[in-house]
Amino acid sequence: MDKSIKRIFIIGYMASGKTTFGRALARSLGWDFIDLDFYIEQRFRKSVREIFASEGEEGFRRKESAMLKEAGEFENTIISCGGGTPCFFDNMDFMNGKGSTVFLDTEPECIVRRLVINNSRRPLMAGKSEAEIRMEVAKGLENRNPFYSRAQIVFPGNLLEDRFQIDSSVEEFKKRFLQ
Length: 179
Description:
Elements: E1 7-11, H1 18-29, E2 32-35, H2 36-44, H3 48-71, E3 77-80, H4 91-98, E4 100-105, H5 108-117, H6 130-148, E5 153-156, H7 163-177
Parallel strand pairs: 1-3, 1-4, 2-3, 4-5
Helix pairs in contact: 1-7, 2-3, 5-6
């Protein structure tokens, strides 16, 4: 493995597989794993939803950026970012300067399918029909892809549905990018 890499930031749209892939990659490398949203919730003792409700998106994004910069100092760490993390402040510049950025490029239909299955866990998608979710995903990707495209590595996120696919994806990633 390239010893100069100290941290990997995983970015992509919600339900693209960032946490699933990041956790499996960290386990495989023997590194630490941080889900940035969970890190924020632990630090502020509030859910992301509660922070949004009390401080608005601007307040949440400020906290998110500060926590990204804190977590981004840890070595041998995989950091799974929220879908919007790269789109605010200087977050992409920071991540690109501190480590390797990986955009999990997941097909929109795959994202929609995952969101339909798990939409109760996603506040922005809760109560929406499949058609509404599809429209939201298309609009979200259109807005966020200019930020995601700044990642140093683009890796497919479609094949993260079961343990075999996850393990195969991790091995493929390591072979292609960490040799």
